[in-house]
Design a protein that fits this description.
336 residues, mainly beta, Lipoxygenase-1, Immunoglobulin-like, five-stranded antiparallel β-sheet, 4% helix
Length: 336
């Protein structure tokens, strides 16, 4: 409660003045660095091609011995779709039908670009959140396209421009229904012809948060005290935050991180959700830099998910000297 009294003036500023949106683009590279994880290289005679993972091999019959392109054995079970270097195995075929495509594979004979030599990213992620991973290609100075897969599910290709150190900031969104203990992010460079280089994997711990009709998730790249605010529609709409974690309409703040600079094992995430019947109308999203626990600039992303689909993302940053100010309105959205 000591923390919350200091914020009452900010609540008024955010809830009633409706401050001008202050969204800024991320331009800082002080992201948290963790151990690089390198994708393994496997092949299979029933596997797919590189790039988008290709098509899995025929199931059943003489499916072959997965991972050994020189050996063929009789099989009564469906053969798995194989992988290309660094890729993820596709699903099993049925009879003589092809298995499903694997995730983006590794080097193909046609790839003529430079390879990733390091990945760095968040220690923890949450379902439905958007995060940034840094891929380093030493000496790179031109934009580069990457194939991004989360837990083997390929997403859209991402094109990024490097900073002076050859580091590319690549954003990815964790599926709303992600489960398990970890999330594996696979990054594959693509050349101008779409040929794929080596895939590298990065593992993050998954912290489960609430889902439903509406989910608003704040993620940030420093162990510091940022807070998420959501103002509900209408004259009677409540403002949800750590100071009012549940609303009469069913909104709930179920994850509040780093209060008063007390880090929680690398969890730099806050989440508000409505399990059902989220109010219709216009919402305002706010972020407050309550207390600077680090000197570095902190970059943040707010992801708005409606009925399991990402509707909006808002990004920005705070410097340490901006801590303790008013709640920043970062965006708005409408549910009809």
């Amino acid at each position: 409660m000591i923390k919350h009294w200091a914020k009452l003036s900010c609540l008024v500023a955010f809830g009633h003045i409706l401050a001008v949106a202050c969204t800024t683009e991320n331009d800082d590279d002080d992201g948290a660095t963790t151990t690089t994880s390198t994708g393994t290289t496997t092949t299979s005679n029933s596997g797919g091609t590189g790039g988008d993972g290709g098509t899995g091999g025929n199931g059943g019959g003489n499916g072959g011995s997965a991972g050994d392109p020189t050996t063929t054995t009789s099989s009564t079970t469906a053969a798995n779709g194989g992988t290309s270097s660094g890729g993820t195995a596709g699903g099993a075929g049925d009879g003589n039908e092809a298995g499903t495509a694997g995730a983006a594979g590794g080097s193909t004979d046609g790839y003529d670009g430079d390879e990733i030599n390091e990945l760095a990213g968040p220690e923890t992620v949450t379902n439905g959140g958007t995060f940034t991973i840094q891929a380093t290609i030493p000496g790179a100075d031109d934009e580069q396209t990457f194939s991004v897969a989360v837990n083997g599910e390929a997403g859209e290709n991402v094109t990024a421009t490097p900073n002076d150190d050859g580091v590319f900031d690549i954003t990815f969104t964790v599926p709303d229904d992600a489960d398990g203990d970890t999330v594996i992010i696979s990054i594959t460079p693509l050349d101008s012809d779409g040929d794929a280089g080596l895939t590298r994997d990065f593992d993050s711990e998954l912290v489960k948060t609430g889902t439903g009709d509406l989910k608003v998730t704040l993620s940030f790249d420093q162990g510091t005290d940022l807070d998420l605010y959501l103002l509900e529609p209408g004259d009677d709409g409540e403002q949800i935050s750590f100071d009012n974690p549940t609303s009469a309409a069913g909104g709930e703040l179920d994850l509040d991180s780093n209060p008063e600079c007390s880090p929680v094992d690398g969890v730099n995430i806050e989440n508000i959700f409505y399990s059902a019947d989220a109010p219709t109308g216009r919402y305002l999203v706010g972020v407050d830099y309550y207390q600077a626990c680090v000197e570095a600039t902190v970059n943040y992303t707010v992801t708005v998910t409606v009925e399991g689909e990402v509707q909006e993302t808002f990004t920005g940053s705070f410097t340490a000297d901006q801590a303790g100010g008013e709640v920043r309105t970062v965006g708005e959205f409408t549910i009809e």
